[in-house]
Amino acid sequence: MEYKQRRKTKMLITKRNLLAETAKQLGTDYSIEDVTEVFNALQDVALSHLQQANEREPITVKFGNGLSISSKIKQVDDKPRLWLHAKISRHYNRAINEL
After folding, report:
1. CA 70 to chain centre
2. Which residues contact 67 (CB under 8 A, 6 or more apart)?
3. pLDDT higher for 25 or 3?
4. How many CB atoms lie within 10 A of CB 61?
5. Which residue of 3, 61, 66, 73 has the lowest C-beta tally within 10 Å?
6. Whole-model pTM?
7. In whole angstroms, how far apart are CA 32 and each of 3, 10, 42, 63?
8. What confidence score (pLDDT) does residue 48 get?
9. Pairs from 11-20 (Cβ < 8 Å, separation ≥ 24)
10. What are the b/e assignments for 21-40, b being 16+ CB within 10 Å?
11. 14-71, pLDDT tens digit by residue?
């Protein structure tokens, strides 16, 4: 599969590339459209949960082993604002480095 090269040293793997590779890995039972539909539904559900954070209760959504996104409300200029924070666990980072 070909990827776009953004700069001399950075490689960009797009959502479309990931979906195509996932469909290919799953075999002929799943098309790119099927995988896209599942991905978009997962994204919508995760965003819906993250938006439910309040000042007392931050929300964390875990994607598999080691990837998570947390949301919490912070006051900025006396207005509540939703803050998101992505995290990769140490275990996941070590597993990637062992490949």
Report:
1. 11
2. 86, 87, 88, 89, 92
3. 25
4. 17
5. 3
6. 0.73
7. 17, 26, 15, 20
8. 93
9. 15/39
10. ebbeeeeeeeeeeebbeeee
11. 999 999 999 999 988 899 999 999 999 999 999 999 999 988 899 999 988 889 999 9
Cβ neighbours of residue 74 under 8 Å, at least 6 residues apart?
80, 81, 83
The stretch 7-20 carries a mean pLDDT of: 83
Tokens standing for 91? 């275990």
The total number of residues written for the chain in this structure: 99
Of 8 and 18, the one with more pLDDT: 18
